[in-house]
Amino acid sequence: MPLLIKICGLKSAELVDTAIEAGADLIGFVHFAKSPRHLDLSDIGRLIKHVNGRAQTTILTVNPDEDLLEHLLALDPDYIQLHGQETVERVDHIKNMGARVIKALPIGDREDLDAVPLYAAHADLLILDAKPPADAAHPGGNGEVFDWTLLKALDPSLKFMLSGGLTIDNVEQAIRDVQPFGLDLSSGVEVRKGEKDAGLIKEFMRRARD
Ligand SMILES: O=C(O)c1ccccc1NCC(=O)[C@H](O)[C@H](O)COP(=O)(O)O
């Protein structure tokens, strides 16, 4: 089965087209005010319409309240991505609202793996991302790689997307060593925080798909 590849934090229709034409399966839009990739609801709605079914879409948010969730669901993304401290009960609740849910889990050490089978039984997709540095302004999109060898302790039948610091230089090794179900990335195809580069997106996708 081909790798599911998600590119997160796209902000323009042109770069959305670049990512889709290069073969991205899932496009992520960030709604988190402190992020350099933050978009307001009207821009996210416009970009989801622009994708128009050519790829799947997700809106990424952090510990959303009911009111925000209702606004996000009205934009009709394929998934809501949760990147905060949302519990499995919260994941279930959001699914009951009619959403498919991607849950991101921070991985820094062996103990962090305990949450993986638990959330795998509730979320539609799981992202295993690097634990953010203590002084990070946002819980994801920090370009940090975690120790992939930790993942050897997981049940091999668990499906997850590998995330955290993926770049054109480490993507082939990541696929070889980890053999994930999917990949998720943001900073690795940026020239500056929040600014994606078409050439890096194409090169990343070429190396990931070869
Ligand atoms: O991207 C952000 O700015 C962001 C802000 C708040 C919560 C999560 C965020 N990103 C989550 C993602 O899905 C990223 O793709 C993932 O953390 C990997 O990022 P990177 O290490 O930069 O590739």
Automatic annotation (TrEMBL):
This protein's UniProt keywords: Amino-acid biosynthesis, Aromatic amino acid biosynthesis, Isomerase, Tryptophan biosynthesis
GO MF annotations in UniProt: phosphoribosylanthranilate isomerase activity
Transferase keyword on record: no
Substrates-to-products reaction catalysed: N-(5-phospho-beta-D-ribosyl)anthranilate = 1-(2-carboxyphenylamino)-1-deoxy-D-ribulose 5-phosphate
One BP term from GO: L-tryptophan biosynthetic process
Broad EC category: isomerase
Transmembrane regions listed in the UniProt entry: none
EC number: 5.3.1.24
Pathway: Amino-acid biosynthesis; L-tryptophan biosynthesis; L-tryptophan from chorismate: step 3/5
Domain N-(5'phosphoribosyl) anthranilate isomerase (PRAI): 5-205
Keyword Acetylation assigned: no
Family: Belongs to the TrpF family.
Stated name of the protein: N-(5'-phosphoribosyl)anthranilate isomerase
Source organism phylogeny: Bacteria, Pseudomonadati, Pseudomonadota, Alphaproteobacteria, Hyphomicrobiales
